[in-house]
Amino acid sequence: MKNLPNVLTFSRIILSILLLAILLHWELIVPSYVHISWRDYFACLIFCIASITDFFDGYIARQFNLGSTFGEVFDPLADKMLMLSAFIGLLILDRANAWAVFIILSREFYITGLRVVAANFHQNVAASALGKYKTGFQILAIAFLLANFFPGGELFLWIAVFVTVYSGIDYTIKYYKALSL
């Protein structure tokens, strides 16, 4: 149990690689008689399982006081890898708007940079509810776009862009306030 959060984090990294492989190389992995729509459903399932590990690794680590340096460093990296693999696949499949993906990923890298700066000043600004909503909308949008069955993926993507930008502004204000203390 002690290493379960780290195992979940590491599994998210593996699932990210698997997700991208499925999206980009389906025809090399699966026999030709399997319909291409199964790629979409399988990719969506992998993404949803990986997203669930993001919730549980943090929950278990907090609930049972199992935090670790590995988790602190690799949990956010695993999150970024999952989103990056999903967005790269969606862009290549022409299911996501490149500007929306650019805005979302740019905000993620920007906030990661702010976290590094804050850490250098021994400051930590905790994740806000807005950041959790941002993640939820991103997961929802990606799942809908990956499944390619239900309408609404594009709408959810632009809602995710709005919430992502808004939460980025909120984090920026919090970080600069924390750094100016």
Question: What does the model show?
Answer:
With 181 residues, this protein is mainly alpha-helical. It has two domains: 1-94; 96-180, no CATH class. It is 81% helix and 0% strand. It has six helices and no strands. The mean pLDDT is 93. Pathway: Phospholipid metabolism; phosphatidylglycerol biosynthesis; phosphatidylglycerol from CDP-diacylglycerol: step 1/2. This is CDP-diacylglycerol--glycerol-3-phosphate 3-phosphatidyltransferase.
Task: Provide a brief overview of the structure.
With 181 residues, the chain is mostly helical. It is built from 6 helices and no strands.
List its salient traits.
0% strand, single chain, transmembrane helix, mainly alpha, lipid biosynthesis, 2 domains
Question: Number of helical segments?
Answer: 6
Strand residues, percent: under 5%
Mean pLDDT, nearest integer?
93
Task: Please outline the major beta sheet.
Answer: none
Rg result: 17 Å
N→C terminal distance: 39 Å
Low-pLDDT segments, ≥5 res: none
Task: Report the principal-axis shape.
Answer: globular
Number of strands: 0
How many domains make up the coordinates?
2
Oligomeric status: single chain
Q: What are the secondary-structure elements, in order, as H or E? A: HHHHHH
User: Which percent bin holds the helix content?
Assistant: over 70%
